[in-house]
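Re: your question from the hallway

Yes, I did run it. Sequences:
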Amino acid sequence: MERWQVIAIIIALYLCVTLAIGLVSGRNASKSVQRYVAGDRDFGLLVMYFVLGASVFSAFAFLGGPGWAYSRGAAAFYILSYGVLGIAPYFFIGPKAAALGRRNGYVTQAQLICGRFPSKTLSTLIATLTLLAFIPYVTLQMRGAGVVIEAVTEGNIPLWVGSAVAYGIVTIYVLFSGVTAVGLTNTFQGLFMLTIAWSLGLYLPISLYGGVGDMFSQIMAERPELLSLPGLTATGEPWSWGGYSSAIIVSAVGLMMWPHLFMKAFTARSDKTLKQTVVLFPTFQLFLIPVFLIGFAGVLYPERPPSSDFILPFMILNADLPAIVVGLFCAGALSASMSTGDSLMHAAASVTVEDGIRPFKSLTDTQQRRLIQVFVVVVGAVAYGFAVTEGVSLVVLLLTSYGIICQLAPPIVAALYWSRATTTGVIAGFTTGSITAAFFFLTGYFGTNLRPFDLHEGLLGLIVHVVVLVAVSLLTKAQDGEHSAAFVGPRS
Amino acid sequence: MSVRAVRWAVVVYMVLFLFATTWPGASFFNDLTPFFLGLPFNLFFIAMLISGGLCVLVALYVSEQRMDTD
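Structure:
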């Protein structure tokens, strides 16, 4: 049997185990929307930990992270830096949102925002922008899965087949078991990924250079510019401090605003579980360090991968490892892609139906669940279309997604902490902030970079957003005190 | 230490974290040597900041749990 066939069999076995866990998790589940979208609010600490951890160990971190370390050096450290800053506010916001969710039946963050600021327009705006931000994110995960499978099977299983098989399985278990499958498969995949990240991250520097310190000493001697902050751009030029710093700020603000993460406040069993998850989250940031070591191990390697995103499978294949071990490593990389992708597809479909359709049309519980399932397939199909088509850089699209998603932060903070905020103020802020972010992205994309100090367009959008939200709120009639107190109160 | 004081400590730590990881703060900790645990100083420093973040969040959780018990 050829080497690539052994690897393909290991990957197939891994996919079968994942599918089995996904399907078994939903076997005894109730058929309600509450169960499908929010897991009957019954996720324990272990599952919550890995569901949030999967957000860190996405295909972007597992493939893009080593790719950035390899080609852009210290620029990759921004991925390490934003997690703690992003998760800390959730210690306070999460339990508050969860309490409101339990009381009012919310399962999405738009429902929470529109509960405080009643507006169908706002609900539709949030659903539309969320969906726009989700598509490139899902696409990136799918493409990551295809890249890994194509690389390790020496091109015998092309990207389009690899993505289709991996995400066909994701679609099946998400359709069948909803968020419960997302939780249990993420736990399995999380354990798998951590083992892979640490073993490979330490093995490569030791086997190629004699140790982690020896590896960095050699890189420092030959490519010192790679190790110094803020690192390099994709074209190899020095990155600006403005670009690096604002990437950290926008990613920190956007981290918990991603609906697939924020909505987990509604799935946690208790406030205690939610807070414990937040406290343990920084451990996942530390687990990312060995992933970067994989990328740094490739810097002085004599051969080059076809593109920097291929560095992880490239190094795995060149490390003289037995085929079974290579297969297991690749399954770890697939875990990273699939554990984020399933959560994204589920959340994108839930948000579309709950926030984009339900405010305009009353649906029975069964109709809602069915419609969410239809959209899981639709989102998957659209993302798959992009994943197999060469075109716009996905990392660029992903960073833009963060620019859109972080616009959800001011409405959430205003809903929970500022009684003077008004619906008009929130809509005006959200609209102008999103338009500002889109304007700076598009002008830059078409060749005219108008961003001052190379700041991320999301940060520029946020600045405009907050100013407009505050100004318009103060200029419009305040909400009924009893209504706002129900959200802003100390234990609302 | 009261819960209020711990909450403030977390806020102060996060502000310092932001300062130390972005411009201009990060430029003060941007040396490559000395190496710690095989990592360049700037990478090791970020790892230490993350570990510190973990510690202050644990302290916040423990103090809140104690308050709930009392």
